[in-house]
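User: Assemble these into one structure.

Assistant: Restating your components, then the assembled model:
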Amino acid sequence: MPEAREKKETRLLRILEEKPDEQESYLHLGKFYFLAGRYDQAAAVYLRGLERFPLDRALLVNLGVVREAQGRPDEARDLFRRILEIDPHDTAAAERLGRLTAF
Amino acid sequence: MKQFVVIGAGRFGREVATSLSAEGCQVMLLDSDDTLVQQMSERVTQAIRVDVCDDKALESLDLGDMDVAVVAIGSKIEASILATMKLKELGIKTVVSKAGSAAHSKILSRVGADKVIFPEKDMAVRLARSLVSSTISDIIELSEDYSIIEIKAPEHLLGKSLVQADVRSRFGVDIVAFKRMVPRQEKDGETGLREEVIIAPKAAEVFRPNDTLVVLGHMKDLARFEKS
């Protein structure tokens, strides 16, 4: 299994290298790192993606979730608020923000 | 299956009734407001419009078999007291009543409430305590001296196992659970977090960043642990 994971990581890194203009390249690699609990690497990939696609909802949501996992709720809240500024009807982002602000 | 009757379909009563239903309990909800009763009818086993101050109406509902009654009327003191009295008379073993003030709370205890709750006050105290401390997220008082707190794992413990950290002998407190956010993929393909609760953690359990610890101990030991 660790071998399969390594292969997958290599494949996703290669895709990103070959297709840096596709938002999905960042998403797939970021998700891979996130699900493996490698939060710092996931955040770095999403941030790279956001440099190219600053208004991309999926990248913003995923980075918000990573920030939450890293114990950085203020940054997560800011990201979900940014999504709501772009689309005030984004119920998923509103729910995530609500969960983070609830006592 | 446990059976509950909730009296009063205000915000608090509705939340209690909905949560009990979600837990799979049988819930009967009573209120005099027809609109509220209608609204709740699909969320509980039975929602009935009834004047809770009417003895005969309550008697006709066969409430004696209920395991617990929750009197969720905070603002109408007279109705809350009469309902509490009547429910005890009907033989309900446990009656939990909501109070809106300290005087109301005293009266409810006198007329037979088994437990009186004061949600606004309790919540205010918990909120104030969590605001005073940047690391404690919740606190439950067990007695004057002992409490259970939820606290962010201190940095000096990160990477250590419970046995290595040896918090019981160093601080005199017990870690009864870890709360940990673990990554997951949602059904819609998005990523999310799921809270995993590790009750009675094993000695080999390792403290991770962003862990919340549920810690039991004497207040002075908990304070020492918090400042560590």
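The first strand of chain B starts at residue 3 and ends at 7.
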